[in-house]
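DM from R.C. (forwarded with permission)

"hey, sorry to bug you on a friday — could you get me a structure for this? deadline for the figure draft is monday and I only need the backbone to look sensible"
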Amino acid sequence: MAEARTAKGKIRQGQKESVRPLIPAARIQKRIRAMAKEIRRDFPEERLHLVSVLKGGVFFLTDLARSIPGEVSFDFIAVASYGQNTHSSGQVRLTRDLDSSIEGRTVVVVEDILDTGMTLQYLLRLFQQRKPKHLRVAVLLDKPERRIAAVRADYVGFTIPNEFVVGYGLDYSERYRNLPYVGILKLGSGAKPQK
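My reply, with the result:
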């Protein structure tokens, strides 16, 4: 999610990190194409307005938007819930709002990961107040073991285990976003980033 993952502290010199692939790039692209068909099937004649949560959702948004036939527009929003930690503070705040109104539009919130659900709960409340015609949620990754808030996605790419994942937009201290696949981050000496 926009729950930006920032390290609590810096990595010590010499500490080894490794990323074990979890979902290969080809599988991600295949699933995104299928999700795009599902979304368009649900809204065959509608102009879709995709809203990506920065920064993690950008990769997913661009690939999803290119895969949806018909008219598609998009916008971006940013929220913070992690601060300087790798685990959520539980408090979500808006750091960048949308550029245009969503009133009367068919809106699909595009998220990288649905984890605790706190960020999505905040966004859904915020967006519902703005009176869209339809409001749906598409997430690339769903981690139901961590759910605190009673929210769900309408379109889910993959359900994943309770591991700290990076790649395809997801980061650890602003690193690994550019990996074309999703992988599990392991720190040296058996240490793991906090989830």
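R.C.: lifesaver. The two ends are 12 Å apart (CA to CA).
me: no worries. The chain is about 20% helix and 30% strand.
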